[in-house]
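Is this the right way to post structure tokens for a design question? Let me know if I should format differently. Anyway, here goes:
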């Protein structure tokens, strides 16, 4: 019963991103045409979890806290368009992402999400190039031009 109510609410409040290029990308020459096929951004986060003592070790994250791993995706306008929760805090981002692809995260061919360095680069996820150090100072300087 709970899942039926949840699915009805999810359909009402969670909006999938459109397949066209986001307005925020189209109007910025630094983003377009490089990110014309991006749907939004994704990243994992942790929330506190009340877990049975027998399962605490699996839910302990790298900081030593008992947490649940939550995987949300959002559009450029910060609209939540997908969420997967329930994974252990010790689970790696790539494992959760692969599970999300099998549980309703629909990414059309030729489209992708932006992810951080915790994700593997593939045709559904664009990650930063690891050999380059990105700095906020450089990003700020590029916005002045």
């Amino acid at each position: 019963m709970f899942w039926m109510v949840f699915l009805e609410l999810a359909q009402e409040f969670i909006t999938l991103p459109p397949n066209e290029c986001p307005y925020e990308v189209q109007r910025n020459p630094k983003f377009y045409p490089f990110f014309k096929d991006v749907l939004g951004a994704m990243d994992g986060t942790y929330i506190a979890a009340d877990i049975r003592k027998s399962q605490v070790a699996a839910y302990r994250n790298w900081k030593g806290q008992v947490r649940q791993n939550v995987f949300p995706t959002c559009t450029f306008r910060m609209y939540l368009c997908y969420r997967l929760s329930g994974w252990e805090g010790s689970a790696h981002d790539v494992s959760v992402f692969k599970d999300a692809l099998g549980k309703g995260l629909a990414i059309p061919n030729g489209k992708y999400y932006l992810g951080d360095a915790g994700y593997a680069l593939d045709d559904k996820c664009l990650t930063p190039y690891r050999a380059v150090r990105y700095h906020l100072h450089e990003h700020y300087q590029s916005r002045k031009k």
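Format looks fine. Someone answered above. Worth noting: The helical segments are 2-13, 23-26, 56-59, 93-102, 136-144. Residues 2-13 form the longest helix (12 residues).
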